[in-house]
């Protein structure tokens, strides 16, 4: 199969392992990976700039399918010398007296944001990480984003009752290339190449039958000649 496929993905999502499987299965179909801001992922797919996107739910799903793949653990980020430094996990109640930054590209959907409201919202998660590293406030993000923005002077632990982010594969409802989409769905869901739910693999070439050697019949049995009897000697 030839052609090309563009897969957009938001920060924190790592599509490398799926790209390697694609290369193995579809070596003649070029796969282009494009990292995009959270706010632009759905629009890239709708406009046709990307054939599909790995994005976070909930989010903009107008005219798009979304197949959930996995749910991320939410963590709270704080300086290593913070009072939470010895904690293995925290709850929203623990954050009540602290400023909690909520960047404009926040990957989580809050019903009520816990903690003390900040004076303003940082533009990006990266900006919020810089503020927390300066010793001001806390930040709650999916664990993959905490790893992406890791710093030696910061620590993060699970936040047990925080909202969670789900990563999904999203593509247009009116898809113009359903066969390649089916290949991508199969890959991100871990289907094998021979899965009956994915596209059928190319039929294997039939090998020409080997020429059969003529079997020789059993050798004809020779008739046994009757033994000759010696002449009887007459007595004298």
Structural commentary:
The protein starts with a strand and ends in a 48-residue tail after the last helix. The strands form 2 sheets. A 5-stranded mixed beta sheet has the order 2-1-3-9-4, sandwiched between helices. Helix 1 links the parallel strand 1 (3-9) and strand 2 (29-35). By secondary structure, it is of the alpha/beta class. The protein has helices spanning 16-25, 41-47, 125-133, 143-148, 178-188, and strands at residues 3-9, 29-35, 52-57, 64-72, 74-79, 100-101, 138-142, 154-158, 165-172. The radius of gyration is 35 Å and the shape is elongated. Helix content is 18%, strand content 23%.
Topology overview:
Layout lengths: L2 E7 L6 H10 L3 E7 L5 H7 L4 E6 L6 E9 L1 E6 L20 E2 L23 H9 L4 E5 H6 L5 E5 L6 E8 L5 H11 L48
Parallel strand pairs: 1-2, 1-3, 6-7
Antiparallel strand pairs: 3-9, 4-9, 5-7, 5-8
Structural classification: alpha/beta
- Give the low-pLDDT segments: 200-208, 231-236
Question: What is the strand arrangement across the widest sheet?
Answer: 2-1-3-9-4
Mean pLDDT: 84
Strand tally is: 9
Q: Which band does the percent of strand residues land in?
A: 15-25%
Radius of gyration: 35 Å
Report, as a whole number of angstroms, the end-to-end distance: 107 Å
């Amino acid at each position: 199969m030839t052609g090309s496929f563009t897969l957009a993905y938001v920060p924190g999502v790592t599509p490398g392992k799926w790209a390697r499987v694609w290369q193995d299965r579809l070596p003649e179909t070029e796969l282009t990976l494009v990292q995009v801001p959270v706010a632009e992922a759905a629009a890239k797919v709708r406009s046709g700039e990307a054939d599909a996107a790995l994005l976070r739910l909930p989010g903009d799903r107008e005219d798009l399918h979304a197949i959930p793949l996995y749910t991320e653990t939410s963590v709270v980020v704080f300086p290593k010398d913070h009072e939470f430094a010895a904690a293995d996990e925290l709850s929203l109640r623990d954050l009540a007296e602290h400023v909690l930054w909520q960047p404009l590209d926040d990957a989580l959907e809050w019903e009520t944001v816990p903690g003390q409201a900040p004076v303003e919202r940082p533009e990006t998660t990266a900006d919020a990480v810089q503020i927390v590293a300066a010793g001001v406030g806390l930040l709650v993000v999916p664990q993959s984003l905490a790893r992406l923005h890791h710093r030696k002077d910061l620590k993060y632990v699970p936040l047990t009752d925080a909202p969670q982010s789900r990563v999904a594969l999203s593509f247009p409802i009116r898809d113009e290339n359903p066969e390649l989409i089916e290949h991508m769905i199969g890959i991100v869901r871990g289907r094998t190449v021979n899965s009956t739910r994915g596209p059928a693999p190319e039929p294997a070439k039939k090998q020409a039958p080997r020429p059969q050697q003529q079997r020789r019949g059993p050798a004809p049995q020779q008739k046994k000649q009757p033994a000759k009897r010696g002449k009887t000697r007459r007595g004298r």
